[in-house]
């Protein structure tokens, strides 16, 4: 949702906390970044899967013409002579290559045709066909990258899904903060205006009472000073509201001429989160488990690669194909001759100054560090969720008490202003009642902020909606369309 307005008009909108969250999830820059970050991971996963699909290619040279002098060596005398090369070559080949994930090798199938037109010293046409050629290229004992990709990339893609969900929950947490920052400023401004209007009325009454000698000049001056301070407070709170509203407006994607008014959340729902459920969800239903699994697999991959580089390396190359040469196209495919090639290469490290051995030791040491770090992360994770659940389960009571305190302080201030107008209360006592009313109302907003901040923090850490009693999910298929 985005609003655009002309330079002559302004638009006022009123939002609840839920509406602000929905707008942030749809329009914020963070939401767009989260989507594109996930799409990057999705295409990385698609690229990984494409490695195991056959790859087709068509290669050719159409044409390759050469008319030049080239040096040739006489095989009998060893003498070099320059002869004229005057020929044109055309070639075309179709290739299919398939990676073998289990072994890390490749197998390819190809078919090609080559035509040679010789113009000097005499004219002639020759066709060289290779109807079929099967090639196996298989490393033995080498590090198998495809095997490890097959282990890691699916887990990494699942991790990307949970990272996306948690990024969306982080957007909610930030939107809650912006909401209550503006709500506090909005309530402070409203309270400052109400206080100023009330004090102005009481000041005018007090001036008449001073003229009658009912109050001292000091009391009148104290009330006037309070009126002036409340006027200053209005200006300060208006500035704070403008700043808070600008941040929220920008995050929600609104035009700068849109004025946002926020509604105070109603009574918080009665909800008590089970610590055991929160433990289970935060360990198994979030990116945490996948992040740990990826870290372990990456450490194991590094050890396997270091060990493979330390051991002897072999490479098997085998080729079987058919081939024929003729002066006409049909003859090039008649009675083709078979051709076979088998080659085994070997590379044995003899002495490298202990470099490869050192790499193996380093990778094993790093693997131990990763395990220790992951164990500590699990402990910290359980501790964090424990603290947040304890804080949240206590926060409902805090909100109830604060709301009642806000009602009591508001009623006390109303009675105090009436008593002051009747001359039954001093300025000092009135100031105390007003200060207590302001403090109680601010405390209520703060407790509401804490409640929803704790709740959405737990929701982010568990990816579970405890109010609706369901897992947080997203339609990933639609995102990747």
Automatic annotation (TrEMBL):
Source organism, top-level taxon: Bacteria
GO MF term set: efflux transmembrane transporter activity; porin activity
GO (cellular component) term, any one: efflux pump complex
Listed Pfam families: OEP
Subcellular location: Cell outer membrane
Keywords associated with the record: Cell outer membrane, Membrane, Transmembrane, Transmembrane beta strand, Transport
Main location: membrane
Family, similarity comment: Belongs to the outer membrane factor (OMF) (TC 1.B.17) family.
UniProt-recorded name of the protein: Putative outer membrane protein TolC
Source organism: Mucinivorans hirudinis
